[in-house]
Amino acid sequence: MNLDNHPCFNVRAHKKYGRVHLPVAPRCNIQCNFCNRKFDCVNESRPGVTSGLLTPFQAMAYLEEVFRQKQNISVVGIAGPGDPFANPEETMETLRRVRETYPEMILCIATNGLYLEPYVDELADLKVSHVTVTVNAVDPAIGSKIYSWVRYDKRVMRSEKGAEILLARQLSAIRKLKSRGITVKINSIIIPGINDDHIEAVAEKMAELDVDILNCVPYYPNKGSVFEDFEEPSKAMVKEIRDKAGKYVKQMRHCTRCRADAVGLLGETPSAGLMRKLQECGH
Ligand code: SF4
Ligand code: SF4
C-alpha cells in the first residue's frame, strides 16, 4: 500500500489514481442548513444527484466490478450519502470486508465527526489511513447558524448547544486520529455571509491540532435546503480565503466536490455502465 497514491491528499497523484466511494451510509445525525437530505451529503459530495444505496454485502459485489473495469483505483472511501458514523454497523462492516479482501487498498472515510472518536482505534487497526472531518466553524455562535440540530446521546440539541457539542466531539476525534497516526483532512464549506470571515480561525485551530491538509470547499446552492437562496462564493473569495488559511495549514486546491457514489479520477464522470451496476447491486 503506497499512501502517497491517494488522489485527494496528494495533488501529484490525482491525475493518475482514482477512488471509489461505497454509498453504504444513508442516515445522518446532524442537520446542516446547506443540506437537503433527499440528496447526497455535501460534506464530500456534489448535491443534487441521488446515489444508489448498497449494503456491505452488495458493496463487495459492486467493488469487484469496479476493479474489473478500472485498474487505477488506489482508494476505497465511504462518504455518505449521510454520515458514516450515523450508520456505524454498515460502515465498519464494509471496511472490515474491504480490508480482508483487498489488503493493499488505501481506506478513507469522510465524516462530520460527531460520532467518530469511539471508532478511531478500530479504524487504525483496520489500517484506515485517511480521514476527512468537515469543520465549518470553531465558534459555536457561528456554528449555530450552520446547523439546525445535532443528535447526540439520543438528545436533539439546537442552536449554540448543538454546535458546541459537535465542535467538542470533532476536536477530540481529530486529536485521537492524530495520536493513532492517521492522516487528517479538514473540509470547511465556505458559506458567504455566515463563515467566510471565520475560515482563517478554523485553519488556525486545525493547525494547533496538527491536521495534514485543509480543503476550503465553496458552498454549492442546494435546492430545498435552508440556505438554498445563498449565492455560491466567487472564485476571488475562495482564493483569498485559501491564501489566508494557507498561512496555517497546507491547502487542497484540486477538490472536485465528489458525489457519495463517485468512482474514477477526481472530476471524472462515472461511466453509465458502472452506475447501472451500482443500481443493480443496490437496494
Ligand atoms: Fe447533510 Fe452531510 Fe450535513 Fe448530514 S453531515 S446534514 S448528510 S451535509
Ligand atoms: Fe476520501 Fe473524500 Fe477523497 Fe473520497 S473524496 S477518497 S472520502 S478524501
UniProtKB/TrEMBL annotation:
Protein name, entry field: FeMo cofactor biosynthesis protein NifB
A GO term for molecular function: lyase activity
Cofactor(s) listed in the protein's UniProt record: [4Fe-4S] cluster
Function: Involved in the biosynthesis of the iron-molybdenum cofactor (FeMo-co or M-cluster) found in the dinitrogenase enzyme of the nitrogenase complex in nitrogen-fixing microorganisms. NifB catalyzes the crucial step of radical SAM-dependent carbide insertion that occurs concomitant with the insertion of a 9th sulfur and the rearrangement/coupling of two [4Fe-4S] clusters into a [8Fe-9S-C] cluster, the precursor to the M-cluster.
Recorded family membership: Belongs to the radical SAM superfamily. NifB family.
Pathway: Cofactor biosynthesis; Fe-Mo cofactor biosynthesis
Entry superkingdom: Bacteria
Keyword set includes DNA damage: no
Keywords assigned: 4Fe-4S, Iron, Iron-sulfur, Lyase, Metal-binding, Nitrogen fixation, S-adenosyl-L-methionine
Domain Radical SAM core residues, every copy: 14-259
Single Gene Ontology BP annotation: molybdopterin cofactor biosynthetic process
TM ranges: none
Boundaries of the shown chain within the full protein: 1 to 283 of 425
